[in-house]
Structures are given as C-alpha cells and as structure tokens.
Amino acid sequence: MHAPGIGPVTYQTLLQHYGHPERLFDKSGSAAAAFLPKPALEYLRNPDWSAVERDLFWQEQPGNYILTFHDAAYPPLLREIPDPPPVLFARGNVQLLSSLQLAIVGSRNPSPVGQETAYEFAKSLSGHGLTITSGLAMGIDAAGHRGALDNKGFTLAVMGCGLDQVYPARHQQLAQQVAEHGVLISEFAPGIPPLAENFPRRNRIISGLSAGTLVVEAALRSGSLITARLALEQGREVFAVPGSIHNPLARGCHQLIRQGAKLVENTQDILEELGPLAEAAFTQQQASPATGPGTTHLDQTHSRVLDKLGFDPTSIDTLVERTGLTAEALSSILLVLELHDKIMSVPGGFYIRLGERN
Fold it and tell me: What is the spatial distance between Cα 354 and Cα 189, in angstroms, rounded to a whole number?
C-alpha cells in the first residue's frame, strides 16, 4: 500500500511465496530481491511507520474500517479476481461487502433518458435485495446510487481517492448518504488524491465486487466499457441497455451487445440471469429488511450442500458425488454460500466451510 513498487499483483506473488506479509520484513534482503524492485526493498528495510500510524488513527474514527486480504469481512467475490487489493478502507456498513451486488455504470454526461433509466433500474433492483455498486461519479453512477437510496435500499461506492475526501466535490452530500445507508470503500489510503491513474484501478474493484455489471449509456471509448471488459475477464455477467442508433452514447452499449452482453429492457431480464443468487438476495431482504445482510437464511438445498462440505478443501466433483446435484447447480449454490460468508474458495478450485461467527 505504502511501499513503492508493490502493487496488487506483486503482493499476491509475495503472498504465495511467503504465506504472510509479516515475513516480508524478515525477507527483505536477497530472498525478496527476485520479486521486488530496489525502492521496495529499501522501503521494507526502513518502513514509513508514521504513514501506518496515520491510517490506524483514521480507523479509530467511528464507522471507519481497514480490511486486509486475510480479514473475514473482506468481500469473497473480490478475493477471486487476479489482482485483488491487499487492503480496503471502508466507511459504513461493511457487511454489505459480502452482499449480492450489481454494478451500474455509464456516461458522466448522460441524456435525461439515460439518467432516468439508471435511476429506475437501481431503484427496482435494490427492492429485490441487490446492493447497487458504482463509483460515485457524475451522471449514471450518481443516478444509480440515488435510485437505491430513494428506495431505502443499499448502495456501495468505490472511490478513486482516500476516504478522507470526496471526488467530485459536489457529491459531498451523496457520499455522506452512501456512508450512512451503505458503504464507501477505497484501496487508497487517506490522503491519496483523485489522480487520473487511480480510476482504471477503481473500475476493477467495481466489477470484481459485483455478480454483474449493467452499462447504461456509454461512448465507444469510455471507462464504462473498461469496467465491462474487466467484468468479462473476471467471469461476471455483463448487461447493456440498448438505445437509439442516433444517440452516440448508445454505441458503447450496442458494441457490448454485439460482443455477447445480455440486452436488457427491464429488471426481470437481470434477475432471471442471476437466477438463484437474486432469489437468495430477495429472500434475505424479506427476512431482515431493516438490517440487510446480517443473518443468513438458507433454503433446504443450500443447507444440504453446506452440510456435505467439510472444513477441509473439497472440490466440486466431490460435491457432485456427495449431493447428486449437477456441477452447474452447485456452482450457483456455492456462490450464494460464499456471498453469505458460509464458505470460502481456495486455490485449485476447492472450497472450505467456515466456522460460525460469535
């Protein structure tokens, strides 16, 4: 995070090699030289502990959290992407990080119809138990957040700067509402400004947290298409709203549809594609509408799969034999269980059951 030359990919390489980040401080000599550039090695020999202390002081403020990759509250879907953030800073309801999320992204300068479309999709989908995730930008992002908030649903904003500031500045009030009724997160420490290079990195988190990404109005060259591409690379669903052939902001969506994104005309198109995941989110919302994803309510099939899963790594093939379910059906059920923090995926395509929290 503070060490120069150690990004998410390098961190994962080091983690696989050393097992725990603490061991880096003992291995910052010749052993780590194969993985790290010289500035990183020098930093590990003499870390900036004052920066760490500033982060810890920020965490002491009410509603602020710092989650490491090893934290139980770290979002399970985000763990699965190739370059997950080693650390997440959060403000608000961190339980939402493990809820079923749908990203809504699009133009910063949408048409009135596009803005209304994003707002209505967010409002409707949040009513079905989905957390609406976006980047707090102008236009479609803001409409998505407001649609969820106005329906008393949940929303999550991924920031391209430290959480001690808001970008764009005019979204101060919106950011406060998201923090109060949802959660703000960032991989950037407090004090990091909204630099241009931060936003492509932010986009991979938006898609990585979400089961699917909905694009509403996007130019052919835009950050929204980058988010959609990242979602595809991460194995997530991509949805696109079609528009007029005369609207240049519809061209990005039309390109996505030609490339295989699901054309959506209403929220049911998305809910049908998400299938059991959406059903579980709606059931959970009905069971605890005021608190969101706190207590998990599993149906009989999900409970049966959980019972067949031990605390040792277990493959899907083994679960097929134990349960009699198809691999396709198990994949959906396992994702629901992982979203509810009942299980965890581990390298090699295996799953382990997590102990109950007190």
Answer: 30
Q: Output the pTM of the full model.
A: 0.75
The reported pLDDT for the residue numbered 41 is 72
Q: At 262, is the secondary structure helix, strand, or coil?
A: strand
Q: How many domains does the chain have?
A: 3
Per the domain annotation, does 215 fall within a domain?
yes
33, 129: one domain: no
Q: What is the DSSP string of 60-102?
A: TSTTEEEEETT-TTS-HHHHTSSS--SEEEEEE-GGGGGS-EE
* Cα separation values, 281 from 23, 105, 129, 155, 284, Å: 39, 21, 5, 14, 5
298 pLDDT band, cuts 50/70/90, is low
More confident residue, 171 or 348: 171
Cβ burial of 173 (10 Å; 0-12, 13-18, 19+) is exposed
Residues sharing a CB contact under 8 Å with residue 82, sequence separation 6 or more, in sequence order: 9, 12, 233, 234
CA 309/CA 344 separation, integer angstroms: 11
SS3 label, residue 344: strand
- Residue 23 clears pLDDT 70, i.e. is over it: no
* Domain extent at residue 30: 1-47
> What DSSP string describes 106-169?
E-SS--HHHHHHHHHHHHHHHHTTPEEEE---TTHHHHHHHHHHHTT--EEEE-SS-TTS-SSG
CA 11 from centre of chain: 19
Instruction: Report residue 287's pLDDT band, with 50, 70 and 90 as the boundaries.
Output: low
What letter represents residue 258's amino acid?
R
Question: Is the same domain home to 98 and 34?
Answer: no
144 and 203, same domain (yes or no)? yes
Asked if 41 contacts 33 with a C-beta cutoff of 8 angstroms, the reply is: yes
Q: Are residues 26 and 99 in the same domain?
A: no
Same domain, 261 and 142: yes
Our measurement of the distance from residue 19's CA atom to the centroid of its chain's CA atoms, rounded to an integer in Å, reads: 24
Closest CA to 77 of 201, 215, 224, 231: 231
**How far is the C-alpha of 43 from the C-alpha of 110, rounded, in Å?**
44
